[in-house]
């Protein structure tokens, strides 16, 4: 707008400079006032016309831009739905197939991994991936039911003291662990031993031991209670 006013002023000065009548007349103010009004009126009319055209173009451009963004947003939403739908179906099918491997032991359903050893964090993720969680033993009855099924190796369960050393909690509930069955001298918090596994050390059944969470063990998953 400043540029337009400057152009108008220059144009006006040139027109006035070329008019001998305005320079020679004793009635300079009156003559120039009438003349200038006509010139400025024409220029202002032209300027207003241009401004309306610009405003109209800006409005159309804004409308077109908004329509394009709306169209792009809809396409992205549709694309996301197309991607998520088969992914969701695949996950549901995988969970159903995986959960067929669970067996009822005592009052709960467990999956006991007997081949692939992974660290505690990966075990947590693996169970969650298939709609379950690391085994969360609540009492002596559950321990007595599950223990005999675990032979000759180490198995991750959900107990850990990662939040505060020496304060053991269930990863599943976030609550203090209600039941322990430690080996003698355990937990000893040796080094970085912050996660708990069930181990068999030549005894009739397994017992609990704290281990480094990055150690590679088998694991036990438990279905969420319905």
From TrEMBL:
PANTHER family: MANNOSE, PHOSPHOLIPASE, LECTIN RECEPTOR RELATED
UniProt KW keywords: Coiled coil, Signal
Protein name from the UniProt record: C-type lectin 37Db-like
Source species, domain of life: Eukaryota
InterPro entries, A to Z: C-type_lectin-like (IPR001304), C-type_lectin-like/link_sf (IPR016186), C-type_lectin/snaclec_domain (IPR050111), CTDL_fold (IPR016187)
Pfam family membership, one: Lectin_C
C-type lectin domain span: 105-222
Signal peptide range: 1-19
Coiled coil segments of this chain: 47-89
